[in-house]
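cache lookup: miss for this entity combination. No prior model stored, computing from scratch. Input as submitted by user K.M.:
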Amino acid sequence: MKYLDEFRDPVVARKILNEIHAVTTQPWVIMEICGGQTHSIIRNGIDQVLPKEIELVHGPGCPVCVTPLEIIDRAVEIAGRPNVIFTSFGDMLRVPGSHKDLFMVRSEGGDVRTVFSPLESLKIARENPDKEVVFFAVGFETTAPGNAMAVAQAAKEGLPNFSELVSHVLVPPAMEALLSSDANRVQGYLAAGHVCTVMGWDEYDPIAKKYKVPIVITGFEPMDVLDGILHTVKQLEAGTHKVENRYARIVEQGGNQPAQVLIKDVFEIANRKWRGIGEIPVSGFKISKKYAAFDAELKFSVDDIHTEEPEACISGVILQGLKKPHDCPAFGKECTPQNPLGATMVSSEGACAAYYKYQRILSE
Amino acid sequence: MDFPEALSCPLPILSHDTVQLAHGAGGKLSNEMIDKIFLPRFLNSTLEKMEDQAVLENPGGRIAFSTDTFVVDPIFFPGGDIGDLAINGTVNDIAMSGAIPKYLSVGFILEEGLPFETLHRIVLSMEKAAKLAGVQIVTGDTKVVNRGSCDKLFINTSGFGFVPENVNISASNLDVGDKILLSGTLADHGMAVMTTREGLSFQSTVESDTAGLNHLVQDMLAVSTNIHALRDPTRGGLATSLNEFATSSEVGIQLFGDAIPVKENVRGACEILGIDPLYVANEGKLVAIVPSNIADDMLSAMRGNEYGKSATIIGEVTDKHPGIVAMLTGLGANRIVDMPVGEQLPRIC
Amino acid sequence: MCLAIPGKLLEIFDENGLKMGNIDFAGSVSKACLEYVPELEIGQYTIVHAGFALSVLNEEEAKNSFDAWDDLIDRANAEGIEVEKLERPD
């Protein structure tokens, strides 16, 4: 595939890797924020071939992992109602709430449907005027433009039966929350390329300056990830802490302006709880007052949500990069992708699932 | 879409346009449906006796017996339909033992209101698939259920074939050093069905690979009967078949990542939906485990068959990491290819 | 997070008042909303996430990346390590 295969060339990837080995002189801890990059790292075995001095810590960049339990429980409750068609990206269906997931709601007779785009959910609303159609609007900045468009379009078309259950989170506040923690070990960041496609990178300059960390905007193909690591290590070795764009074929400094305009119109900044981490101030979106009629949280009052997180699960400290999945006593035992205790085991990009699936073969 | 067979065999004149509950009640309407829709297409000397059972000659030796039920949604998809899938699926399950499939039974569960035109189209493609595979449909059954009790139609096929002497194919036969041969590209069927499903906004060019593989297997056995294991990687994909092999035989499987063929448009669909082709269903591919000394001859024989044209060696059996399937990446790292969990869903992250 | 894949714009159309396009991903064609990339022209590559085109692919910048990586390869060759040149998109 064009603009994809060229960035997967193993020969070039090995050259970049050699360069990383050549420039690394001391131990460094680098966090890739985005679950997509975690996936690429594990799938291609990048962690296995890096110099032993470089430790990659897998960040909280996966909406499946960080969507709080309350919201999942709320989704489960709404999806089970008789007059509701509940629509969601495929990712969220297996995420366990306190008692069940959306698959179980479907097997109990709930109308739960997978969509690939929020506009498909809108189409379902158009075709089913006598039903309430709810879209589970999860995601980071990358997904926000689409989810905002669906709300704006529902308002324009006058589709009162469409609403979104929003759990949107933002990357820069989470990066800052991790850096300001006393236990922080992260010395450099690979910033999430597709988040920056939408938002640009101006927000990262103050973070890089304040915490003296290099932040390198990085793509997702093996060569991109290696290139991001190379330039982070180069900065660390040189003692610099700049924001650097290594995904310039996709990302512009200002990001996508039309998308930002609509996001600002449909959403407003809110405090958000991150599963496993806790509440982070101004770290997410909720639907703005102007579009309150399309806010499923207001439309469906859900009382009596008592969330219960499994005790054994340490996904919170894993998301913060303080521990690795195999440090967890439940990892691969009580907790597996078939029977996940925590969200990091649910998403295929969650650090635990990724480790479980692609863990290195110790016998070699 | 073009259906030349349907044009050459127009729908017979029936007293109803759609399937009624009475068509399953065993009376005149049942007989009309059997006489006009099923018998002319499936006819053979056993079936035409219209007994409650098929009485068949027993040539002696071992038989391979298998059953499968088909509920695919949608029932028509690019490259095939539930009809040829139902024939090829059971033919392939039998053939993966090395047996020559001979006889099938067919059970239909029809939803009240199903247009006869639809049923006729499906029966025509079953006829065609059975002819290509060289199998006879010797007994059958039809039930009609209330609207909503099934989705359009479900088909069960069971069947058996005869296993040649000296053929002993089993998932537990893998030996260290064996080569892993794949008959062609991965993920065609699963992605053809997925991209056709409503809601995904795809105009896909991906076609199902549904095909009977029994002749390919016989071409392979003509090279050597010493094939250790064979499987058609359907649900769960190649990753599932290989994990089952590794577990049954207590050996490791080492795949060479860049050797596994996937068609360009299939890969495009996989990329955009976030799906790994190793976990996607195939309906016209087989994976064979053979001793390394016959691997090259086996590969040539496979490539000489229409359904093995793009056959290739994708890995080997190793004594390292028993029970585990691993794949070498372009960077020289080795990652585990685990069993899938649940169905493959399009994802955004 | 945020699976987004490059594809080529084949055609532009209107659907419910939204600017939409068919995008070719190596032969599999999928519909995407083009409202956020008003400058995208037929034949250009864009990156699509969850049915929305988010950015026009900058071919010049892609070329710059390849040039930088080519330099790494030239250096490797100069050190006596044989490495082929990159395959580039045309």
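stored under new cache key. Chain A touches chain C through 55 residues (CB under 8 Å).
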